[in-house]
Give the backbone structure.
Amino acid sequence: MSLPEPEEIERLAIGDLRSLVTSLLAEVLRLRAENATLKEEIARLKGLPPRPKLKPSGMEQASAPPTPPPSGKPKRKRRRGAKRDRLVVGEERVLAAAVPTGSRFKGYEDVIVQDLILVPRVIRYRRERWVTPDGQTVIAPLPPGIVGGFGPALRRFVLAGHVQGQVTSERLTALLAGIGIAISKRQVVRLLTGRLDAFVAEDREVLRAGLASAPWISVDDTGALHAGRNGVTTQIGDSRFTAFRTSLSKSRTNFLDCLRAGHADYVVDEAAVAYMRGHNLAGPVIDRLASHPQRSFPDRQTWAAHLEALGVAALEVTPDPVKIATQGAMWGAIRRHGLLDGTVVVSDDAGQFRVGTHALCWVHAERLVHKLLPVTEAQRRAVDLVRQLIWWFYRDLKAWQRQPDRRRAAALRARFERIFRRRTGYVTLDRLLARLRERKAELLRVLDRPEIPLHTNGSENDIRAHVIKRKISGGTRSEAGRVARDVLLGLMKTCAKLSLSFFAYLGDRLGVPDAATVPPLAQLVRASAPA
C-alpha cells in the first residue's frame, strides 16, 4: 500500500486518519502472518521440527467469562521481597569494608540471605539401667520418634523427599550418603514404610470426617501395579480432604468398601433395602433379609454365613443376589455410621461410582462428543455445532451457580432438552446425544444443588500425584508399601487443601524437637465444612 507524505498526513481529517490507521493495522497483521509462514518454510527446508499446534485447553476454559479490561490506574507490580518481610532473622553478621583513610561511616545496607545446612548429627544416648529390689531391670526410654537408630528429623527429611518431592529410595540413599549419613537402601525403605500406624489412623479419621460433613465428593480412579498384578487406585475427596485406596478390584463393591472408611460391618436397614430394590434384587430375597431378626453383622465372614443360612448364596439368578445383597448391606453400614448424608457423588460416569445421589462431570460428557471421528464435512460441522452449544450451555450453568434462580433453572432445563433432542443426520452423534439425554437428572443435578462442582477436575488433579508416583517408582510389592503410598499421599494432599505445610505436619507427628504444633487433620476438616 502507498503511504501519504508526512506533510499530507498533517492535513488529513479525523475520519481519514482513522481509515489510515485501520489499514496500517491490517497490513501489520498480514505481514506477521506472512513472516510466520516464511519462518515455518525455512525451518522445513533446514529439516527442523515444526512448531507444535497447541489445542484449546478444553470446555472449562472455553466457557470462562472474558476478563474485563483494567479500569483506573494500572496495578503496581508486587515486590519480589514480600515473602522475605515475614522471615525471622536468627543471626546477624557485620561485614567490614576496606575503605581509604578519611572515609565517613554512613550506616549499613542490609541484605537478607536464606541458607540451609545439612550436616550429619550423631548422638550417643547413654540409657541408665537400674535393677529394682524385686529383681526387675529398668532402662531409661529413648526420646520419641527414633526408629532403627535414626532420629525423627532424618525420617521427616526422608518422608518429605519421597512423598512430596517424588525422590526414589535409591536417590535418597545416595543423597544421604553424600551428606554423611551411614544408611542403606533397605533402611531407607523401612523409614518410609515402617511404624505408620498413627498416620494410617489419622488418614482413616480424615476420610470419615470428610464423608460425614461433605455436601459433595468427587471421585476418580487410575491403574496401579501391586505385587506384580494390575490393580486400581480410587480417589475420594472434596475441597478439604483427599483419600486414596488401592485394591485389585474396580467393582462397585470395592468402591462401597472404600466409602465405609474402615468400618467392616454389614447392616440390613431401610437404606440397605432401598438399595436392593433399586438394583432389582428379587422380592423374596429382600423379604428373607428384611424379616430376619439379625440385621447387623460385624464382619464379612459372619455376613457370608448369614447369606448361606438363608439360602441366598445357592441362588443362580441374574442379577447375582449375593452381590446385590452385599452391596446393599454395605450401603446400610455407610448410612448407619452417618456417612454420605445428603452427599452428592460427582464422577466421570464410571459404573462403580453410581451410588447414592449421583452427578455427572460435564467435561467428560463433552469429551464424548469431542472424541467422535466425523468423515464428511457435514458431520464435522454437526459435531462442531453441538460442541459449541454444549460449551455455551455449560458457561450459563456456571453463571447460574453464582446466582441461582428458580425461573432461570426451568429455562435451562428446557434448553437442555432442545440441545440433546437435536437430530443432526450424523447417526453416531444422534445416538450419543440421546444417551446423554437419558442422564439428564445427573447432568443437571447442579440445578438442585448449586454448591456441587460441574466437573471432576479436582479429582484428576489429586490423582495425578499417584500417576507421577507410578511413573517414577512403578508399583508396590509389599502390603506395607501399598499402605504407605496411599496414606502419605492422601495426607499430603489434605495438608495442601487445608493450607498446611506437609513438612511441618510430619515434624509434629514424628516428634521432631521444636516442631510447630499441627492440630488433628480430621478436626480441621470438620471445622472447614460449609455451613
Notes: The mean pLDDT is 90. The longest helix spans residues 14-45. The beta strands are 129-131, 137-139, 216-226, 229-237, 242-247, 266-267, 296-297, 344-347, 357-360.
